[in-house]
Backbone:
């Protein structure tokens, strides 16, 4: 769908939308992407998930990707760009996509930007404090079968260590150790500034306080994306959601 560029007149059906979710590791991007995908019928494309699939392969490429990811480093721009582009070309992406974890470098953004639908692209920049992030990531458990994300502190599975959806044994990601997490947060901050600036200049960036309960965040993001998709809801902006910071936390 990224190759398709078309304008939209008032009254037309909403065209394809591209939602780019920015946010540090552990801020809830994965969970929120899944919620948006379920409620709006957009396809969730996680560069991390695509890469984890490659990393499981018993091949030279699989080995290289696995080693890179376990060290908390970024996989090559070329590989990630080609993987994401190939996924967006599949038929189920016609309504729109949520890009989670991509782009992550300026070279990836430079590759992506010319392909974006001009009026239906929205970049949601999720903000959260590093201390909360480290605690969250270290408590995170993922289902290897369906990808569902749990958290031992805030969103435990009904039966310890087992996925609610398919009973698979939950596991930690290979890159979720404390040292790797801290390094990933530092790297993320360094990498994301130029990207956020770039999207801000294009006037498509919305900064969002993600340190609120996941359901509140989902409702905010959903309303913003519906507006970007051209639905005739009451026009919303981030300031419509201005509210006191919550102490309750959950999510990934
Ligand atoms: P996190 O947000 O916790 O880093 P992800 O699942 O998005 O989790 O990414 C896991 C790993 O996959 C990253 O540490 C990196 O090695 C690789 N990766 C994911 N997305 C990209 C990307 N856009 N460019 C390069 N490497 C990526």
Residues:
């Amino acid at each position: 769908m990224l190759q398709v560029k078309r304008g939209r007149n008032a009254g037309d059906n909403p065209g394809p939308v591209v939602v780019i979710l920015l946010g540090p590791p552990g801020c809830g991007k994965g969970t929120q992407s899944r919620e948006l995908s379920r409620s709006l019928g957009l396809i969730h494309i996680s560069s991390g998930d695509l890469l984890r699939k490659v990393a499981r392969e018993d091949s030279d490429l699989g080995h290289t990707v696995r080693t890179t990811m376990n060290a908390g480093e970024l996989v090559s721009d070329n590989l990630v760009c080609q993987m994401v582009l190939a996924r967006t070309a599949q038929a189920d992406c016609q309504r729109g996509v949520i890009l989670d974890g991509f782009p992550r470098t300026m070279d990836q953004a430079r590759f992506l930007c010319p392909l974006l639908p001009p009026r239906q692209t929205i970049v949601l920049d999720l903000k959260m404090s590093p201390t909360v992030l480290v605690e969250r990531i270290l408590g995170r458990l993922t289902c290897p079968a369906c990808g569902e994300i749990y958290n031992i502190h805030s969103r435990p599975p009904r039966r310890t260590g087992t996925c609610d959806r398919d009973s698979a044994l939950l596991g930690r990601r290979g890159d979720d150790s404390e040292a790797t997490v801290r390094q990933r947060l530092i790297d993320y901050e360094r990498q994301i500034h130029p990207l956020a600036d770039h999207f801000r200049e294009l006037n498509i960036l919305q900064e969002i306080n993600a340190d609120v309960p996941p359901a509140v965040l989902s409702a905010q993001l959903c309303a913003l994306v519906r507006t970007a998709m051209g639905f005739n809801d009451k026009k919303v902006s981030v300031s419509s959601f201005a509210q006191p910071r919550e102490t309750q936390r959950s999510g990934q």
